Description:
Largest sheet: 6 strands, parallel
Distance between the termini: 47 Å
Order of helices and strands: HHHHEHEHEHHEHEHHE
CATH topology of the largest domain: TIM Barrel
Radius of gyration: 21 Å
Shape: globular
Oligomer: single chain
Amino acid sequence: MCSECFTICNQGAIDFNSPYRIDRSTCNLCGNCIDLCPEKALKFVGIEYELDDLIKILLKDKTFFKNSGGGITLSGGEPTIHIDYINRLLKNLNTNIHVCLETCGYFDLKRFEELIIPYIDLIYFDLKIYDEAMHKRYCGVSNKLIFNNFEKILKFNTRVEIIPRIPLIPEITSTDENLRQLSRYLKSLNIKTIGLLPYNPLWIAKTDKIGMNTEYRYSEWLEKDNKSKIKSFFSDFDFKDF
């Protein structure tokens, strides 16, 4: 252990006595330790692109998109946090590439309709929890804005395909009551196709690596019997990838 990173860190964020080595609450992401590390043991995850550079990268696969029926997916995190950047990206892309946007639905509808809707073809719209109090408990905000945005886009949009998706989090979103409520709600809106996102427990290892503590530790994949039971709540719908 050369300890060069410890020496160069002016935030005191590196502690070799800690199992995680780096105090994330103190680190200011300056990158000095990454540049200095002779073994390249540290690295930034994620790349920030200038608009023109990103467009060049996307257009490299234009022929593949055309032949495969694929396209570009704007995901996250939550892509609508960067709504102005996405607007500039899609306007300057200036090509017939299919564009899908994945969203939690918590955004300013007026800006979304003005800056995003004209340039995309498909929205995967996540609906997690029907009960407002439970949504506040697990997501930190009311779901009123989300449902309002969903219903208005359904009503006034005639071009973009919208597929509601339900992330299946054991004991939180995949409870019988929540699934029953969401099924009734979507049926009332005459929805035909939905997406169900199976729980992926691999995220737990990521939080462990960065020293983030979480009370939720459900570490099992959804089994076949669980999937069958979940599908039974949505017997009147077509499924997208489940």
